[in-house]
Amino acid sequence: QVQLVESGGGLVQAGGSLRLSCAASGTITGSMGWYRQPPGDQRQFVADISRDGITNYTDSVKGRFTISRDNFKYTVDLQMNSLKPEDTGVYYCNAYQYWSRKTYWGQGTQVTVSS
User: How much is the mean pLDDT over the chain?
Assistant: First the structure.
């Protein structure tokens, strides 16, 4: 069983920056990523990164967010710049384990961007 613990959420003004971090309790063989759930909406994909460093982003965050991963520290970070009010939501860390074919989720961290 893998535990994921997020940190780094908070309140920031539009145009500001935040960095989210997620620490896994052990090595992750698949991709790691971030999802978010805006108020009153469904959880949606934000970004992910393969073990080899291949990244994917949803269109709305391209050029503003950067995902990175440290396979030795079992961490994945999300650097968020030029934040907009529509980036507000609960951000969840996600990890996929190839050998067990299981997907794991963190408990979520709140990001609020004020206008």
Answer: 97
